[in-house]
Each structure stands twice: as structure tokens, then as C-alpha cells.
Amino acid sequence: MHADTTAAHTHDVAAPEASEEDLEQQALSRIIHAFQTYAVEAEGEVARWEKNIRKLSPELRAMVPELNNKPGHARKCIMENASFFDGLVAAALADGPGQGLDVIGRLDNQSQTHRASPNDVDKVRYVLKNLVRDWSEEGAAERAQSYGKICTELRTSLGNLDGKDGGEQLRVLVPGAGIGRLCVDIASMGFHAQGNEFSYYMLLSSAYVLNHMEKAGQHTIYPWLHSNCNQMSDSDQLRQVHIPDRAPADILKASSSGSLSMVAGDFVEVYGDPKARETFHAVTTCFFIDTAHNIFEYLDVIWHVLKMGGHWINLGPLLYHWADAHTYLPTEEMSIELPLDQVEKAAKALGFHLVRKQMVPATFNVNPRSMLQTSYNCVFWTMVKVPRPHKKPTFQAAYGINRRP
């Protein structure tokens, strides 16, 4: 199975004379470099552990002899994770020209000792946790809380059409597709699932999983290695997780008619295009709508891409991702933060009819063995596209709203 991927857009800011293609290549080069230098950055962290341990007196270290052994065990875990990322990068470079990832020339100029930014380091490590959520047995319980409910609701909403609508395969859009498990599960139901993803970290990882993982347990990773706090034991922190729990191709064998594609890029830019109008029978959003700079735009684009009578199934909280961006970014980013009742009000005004709604508990990338367990009280609703109360152009066109000042 080979995911169909188009060019992506990034948040990176560069000199005005740089072309869009140059910006894309610079961003991708930086991100691949962050994957490549994972071991260097992780070794620096373990060295810090050792430095602090050495500050303890021999008497104190003797009380907990495991302190002296942990760095050595951690280094073995780092090498396993680094080996996984090396495979991911090699696959990206091998697939590159056909996937819009032709960056080999730029990477030749990158020094392996050049430090990745703290933000890039964190995002590389975040990939490990997302792999657990989407593609491990350990993540099955968390997937059931969200993906499972969405798939059941999708079957309820569209199942009577048996994957077809007048001979046309039913198309389901999955914005914020991440590493692709929800897309694969939906495709296995007989639908055409189209995933959309903005992050190169997720795009490269999903391409590796979807195109290069052929059997269960093909890789071993250590996803919780970098979380020192709230651990029950070193063995919990340094435990291995096998991925995938099932090969994507094996999951898709459940359906002879299901299919899958991936489209890279900003959700509003890609699907706000007039050509995308009324091209999907359903949109499923899972922990996604709060990634919006302007949630009105998201609602408008979801309505735009749905066929009349199409279903929007949403599950997630309202942890608006850009709400505190002004505290860590040099430029101010737009962020509209509506409470849930006002999101529903806006959806109704923009042409949605609420069919079902409930609040359900769900976690996201939670370590099941951690002393810290965070669960969201998520809204889980199904809405149907209906004619808008008043004829008007799309919200973006009508009001000229931009996500950035």
C-alpha cells in the first residue's frame, strides 16, 4: 500500500525572496535533521542524569543502586529509537522524489552535530507517543475511546449505503490524520478515507508506517524513555513497545472496496478551494477542531466539503492550541477561543443540524502506567449539513478573515 501524498505547507517564516518551494524544502530538511540527530540530543539528556547522580554522595547512591544502572539501560533504548528513526529517514529519502520530498541535496549540507531546536527535539519525541496511540497493542484502549466511537457512529450514519452512493464510493475526510490509524480503520469499513495532515513529523511517520510496515511487531521503540516524572519504576519508563500491532495492509484486507489516500497541507488552504466543494459524504474530526486559529474557518470549510445531507462526526475537547502562542512565539498568532455552546451556535448558523451529542471521557497519548493520568471530557456529536439559514458566500470570502494579523 502506498499513500498518495501531495506537497505540504508549513508555519516556517523565511526571507520574502524565498520561494514557497524553497520554504518547504528548508522546513523538511530541518525536520529530517531533527530525526537524524535524535540520538545526539537524547545522549545529552542522559549525560545530564549522570552529572546530577554524581553530585550525590557514595552513601546516598548506595541506598538506591539502580541510579547507577539507569543511564546505561537508557542508552540502549536510545539506540533502538535512533535505529527506528534512521529507517524512517531512509524511507523518506528513498520515496522522496515521488512524494515531494526531494531534499537529498540540502541534507548533504547538514552537520550531524548541528543542534536541533528544542521545539524540534520535542516533536521528534512526540512521534514516539503517537506511534503508541495509533499502532500498538498498548494504545488499543485509548483508540477505543475515540477512533472506535467514531467508526461505530460512521457505520450508523452511512452504513445503510453499504459504502456506495449511487455507484459512487462513499468518501470520508479525516483532517488531522496524524499517523494514519483512523484513516486505515475507516478504509477497512469499505469507504474511501482521505487523510489530511499538516505536520511533516506526522507525514513522514505515517508514510513510513503505511508504506513500509509489512508485519505486526516489525519495530521496537521506547516511547516513555524521556519522561522522568510520575514513573512507578525504571522498568515502566524504559519498557519497550512493539509496532505495529497489525500491518496496515492486513487491516485493509477486511474490505475489498475500501481505499485510502493522504493529502498534505493546511486544512483551510487545501479544502477551502472551490474544487473541494461537496466532495465528501462525511468528515470525521478527532482531537482536531481546537487546532484552529479561527474556529469559524474550520466550521465553514467542513460545511463546504460536505455533500448536502453529509455527516460531520466530531470527538474531542476544546484545548485551543494557539491560545497561549503569544507567550512563546515572536509574532502574535490569531486565536479565537469559543466555549462549546458558542461553537454549536456558530455551527447552526453556518448550516449544520445537530443529530446526536454526548460528552464522553477520552485520553490522548497517555502513558497507562504513569502516576499522572489526564482525561478530557470530550464532546462527541454528529451533525448533518443542511442549507444555510441565509444565502451568503463562505465565511472566509464574506468576511476576509485571516488567521494571522
UniProtKB/TrEMBL annotation:
An individual GO BP term: methylation
Region (Disordered): 1-22
Matching InterPro entries: CARME (IPR012901), SAM-dependent_MTases_sf (IPR029063)
Biased composition (Basic and acidic residues): 1-14
A UniProt-annotated Pfam family: CARME
Keywords: Methyltransferase, S-adenosyl-L-methionine, Transferase
GO terms assigned for molecular function: carnosine N-methyltransferase activity
Cited SMART domains: N2227
Its EC number(s): 2.1.1.22
Keyword S-adenosyl-L-methionine part of the UniProt annotation: yes
Record bears the keyword Methyltransferase: yes
Protein family per UniProt: Belongs to the carnosine N-methyltransferase family.
Name assigned to this protein: carnosine N-methyltransferase
Organism phylogeny: Eukaryota, Viridiplantae, Chlorophyta, core chlorophytes, Trebouxiophyceae
